[in-house]
Amino acid sequence: MSHPLLAGKKGIIFGALDSQSIAWKTAEAVAAAGGSFVLTNAPVALRMGTINELAEKTNAKVIAADATSLEDLENLVDQAQEILGGQLDFVLHSIGMSVNVRKGRHYTDLNYDWLAKGWDVSAVSFHKLLQTLYKKDAMAPWGSIVALSYIAAQRTFPNYNDMAENKAYLESIARSFGYFFGKEKKVRVNTISQSPTLTTAGKGVAGLDGFLNYAERMSPLGNATAAECADYTVSLFSDYTKKVTLQNLYHDGGFSNVGVSQEIIDSLPSDE
Ligand SMILES: NC(=O)c1ccc[n+]([C@@H]2O[C@H](COP(=O)([O-])OP(=O)(O)OC[C@H]3O[C@@H](n4cnc5c(N)ncnc54)[C@H](O)[C@@H]3O)[C@@H](O)[C@H]2O)c1
User: Fold this and answer.
1) I need a labelling partner for 57 at 20 to 30 A (CA). Which of 73, 108, 211, 265 fits?
2) Domain count of the fold of the chain
3) Is 74 contained in some domain?
4) Whose CA is closest to atom 22 on ligand 1?
5) Quick one: which atom of ligand 1 is closest to the CA of 68?
């Protein structure tokens, strides 16, 4: 899909690790829609990933920033405005990590140092980013900021572990900071609650394959892919959604409003 919806718009995209990343697909979609941007990721991810390939393809500069470091964020926001020539129109926060998930620690036996680290990376980093953009007056009026979430913020999914709380916190930050960004700067802040997706972060969740299958059969339109999420984000960065803010927007093929699907019922053994 490519319409010049973002012609002349500029921004920052966090979280493109490899070609499966939601942020990678978003960078491609934003570039196809005429937007220009700076790509950023944690220094360690830049060393491991293939972001330079994406940068070349989308004509973007890459700036390293650990999203938990205020100093890195300040430097990033200053440099991005210098490179792109002024205030920003869009920012994507596509960052998530739980040490407890990575190390296979069960939810009933959490390591709290790891919990604090994952919370900082996955949730507080969004506040740090918003605060940096706000204080530096780095967003243009009618700009749009999007972060990625998951429905475990509202409902229980056993293997999602402490990421469930991180996503609930992230969504709350979008509402709380979105109020001030709207009032003072006319800037939108939203989260997209995306279907389970096969990415590096997604694969960290135990049993993702079975779960993808289940969600596919529960969703009337099927699971939303990373590329479809990218298109949705382009619409939220565009001028067609100027009054959408403080929302958690489900992008999940309808999963969030289905109690049970006939396919799931038919797949269960019957008592008769
Ligand atoms: N994959 C799914 O099933 C799914 C579903 C819903 C929401 N999400 C969310 O989408 C977002 C993107 O994840 P993804 O699935 O594309 O996986 P991904 O692994 O490709 O992306 C996660 C990114 O977070 C970055 N990151 C980690 N620590 C960081 C730090 N300290 N500073 C800066 N960046 C850091 C990683 O380098 C990586 O690029 C996450 O918020 C994730 O929770 C994913």
Assistant:
1) 73
2) 1
3) yes
4) 95
5) 31
